[in-house]
Amino acid sequence: MAGWTLITGASEGLGAEFARLAAAEGRNLILTARSEDKLRALAEALRGCAGEIAVIPADLADPAGAQHLWQKAAIGRRIEILVNNAGLGRHGAFGNGEGWDRELATITVNMTALSLLMKMAIPHMRAERGGHILNVASTAAFMPGPNMAVYHASKAYVLSLTEAVAEELRGTDVHVCALCPGATQTSFFDAADMHGITLLSLARPASAEAVARAGWHAMKAGHRLHVTGAMNKLFAFAPRLTPRGLTTFITAKVMGKQGR
Ligand SMILES: NC(=O)c1ccc[n+]([C@@H]2O[C@H](COP(=O)([O-])OP(=O)(O)OC[C@H]3O[C@@H](n4cnc5c(N)ncnc54)[C@H](OP(=O)(O)O)[C@@H]3O)[C@@H](O)[C@H]2O)c1
Predict the structure, then answer these.
(1) Which H or E element spans position 174?
(2) What's the CA gap between 30 and 50, in Å, rounded?
(3) Given this model, what pLDDT does residue 200 score?
(4) Cα diameter, the chain
(5) Domains plus CATH for the chain?
(6) For tag attachment on the chain, is the N or C end more exposed, with fewer CB atoms within 10 Å?
(7) What is the pLDDT of residues 143-157, one digit of tens each?
(8) pLDDT tens-digit series, residues 69-104
(9) Ligand 1: distance of its center to the CA of 241 in Å?
(10) Residue 21: which residues within 8 A CB-CB, separation 6 or more?
């Protein structure tokens, strides 16, 4: 049975780029997100270069969403690549009492759904011919993030989970990789209300195509962790050398909105 690549958050941004990369290799694709119209438009654009393409709309903020998605995706299919890419965040102080709905969605999509899909995929892949899982984390994983506290905490979880499970899977034919991009040109900043943060004035965000390509190659090479770009590698490494309080103070400045 030919293998399939399941990509969450495939309707735009990094997820759509992962879909283009998988399609260019002639792979069979399962595209999922909430926006069925965007998924169908992408599927149409990729027809002819990809193998078969299935579109399965799913809301991963629904507590049962990931389970239902896996059931629909894996019935009669061998999943050989899982790209756990769907994610969101919210800019704003945690303690101001606002934004819980979006923070709960961040927790559910970024952590619960990602974990459930990985938990389902590993035994499935081990029983078949192995496979690769790419979990999209962030450089946010390396430091607490005042003004994006839940998002940073969720990505620290993704990184820790991925590295731990990768060690459990040492010597098997299932490989798990965490991708840690820095700022990337997608709709993420609009959706998370991040315009005006200092970070965006310090460095030009990378292109989604370049970030996805780097992650895709790291995953296929069997790497456990890939931080994109030299500056992001520095951001990821620096917290090992600085006191945690200082790291958090600097991150608050970088993630804060200018003029406030
Ligand atoms: N952009 C950056 O600077 C950056 C940096 C580091 C890490 N990342 C990570 O990269 C990943 C992709 O983000 P992106 O930058 O490509 O952002 P994006 O353009 O906003 O795309 C987010 C994707 O997640 C999907 N999604 C959001 N909520 C969902 C839900 N409830 N159920 C199912 N799917 C949902 C969206 O599809 P629908 O809206 O159609 O559901 C969309 O396809 C995320 O995990 C993000 O944390 C981004």
Answers:
(1) strand 174-180
(2) 11
(3) 87
(4) 57
(5) 3-255 (3.40.50.720)
(6) C
(7) 999 999 999 999 999
(8) 999 999 999 999 999 999 999 999 999 999 999 999
(9) 31
(10) 212, 213, 216
